[in-house]
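Issue 218. Parser rejects a valid record. Input:
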Amino acid sequence: MNSALFDLIAFDADDTLWHNERFYRMGRERFRQMLAVYGVDSASDARLDAIEVRNLPYYGYGMMSFILSLIESGIELTDGRFRPGDVRRLLELGKEMLSADVEVYAHVVEALAALQPRYPLMLITKGEPTNQWSKINRSGIANYFQHIEVVHDKSPAVYTAVLDKHRLQPERFLMVGNSMRSDILPVLDLGSWAVYVPNELTWAHEHVEPASVNHRRMFTIQHLGELPDLLQQISA
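Output the parser choked on:
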């Protein structure tokens, strides 16, 4: 195997290139504090998770989907006692999250700069397009990517559509990301390659126990600064 195997390297964005989940954790903590006034305890987390997943077919992924699920959870968990003022506070929380600074992880810029001369790079991110494009444009790293795809989900069918669009063969495609469920397993199913970058702040819905995945086309690194050396090792 050599570096020519990869015609293109694609990267996930949220929690791979820049911080994202920590804003959701902050939002959940604010929500817990609001519910405490109604006497609702920490069991709300599991209910919120269930409501978020239940709403994915309607609202998709992203911060506004999260806020709508918070509002719905507030109404359900308080048996309809959730006040209009609290709904307003959640809407303001959503605006705060949507306008937060985009903070790129350490090593990202150096890794992209090292790889760009050697490979075409692609960004594949899922979520609400307006929000995702806003983060991409504010990140300061969009110019490293030859292609950018904002998708509604990351399933094998969606990856297949992206590969077909760019005339890429699955076995010559490498995906880099922090989510086993969205970034790693779907591309392995297609016969592609994957690099897993663990992140302790990963949404529970995206979690798959890494120890359960053992695949010859998957590699694990601790941060993106290790990616250029990994690719050199593979080519050697």
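Fixed in the parser; the record now loads. The CA atoms of residues 133 and 150 lie 8 Å apart.
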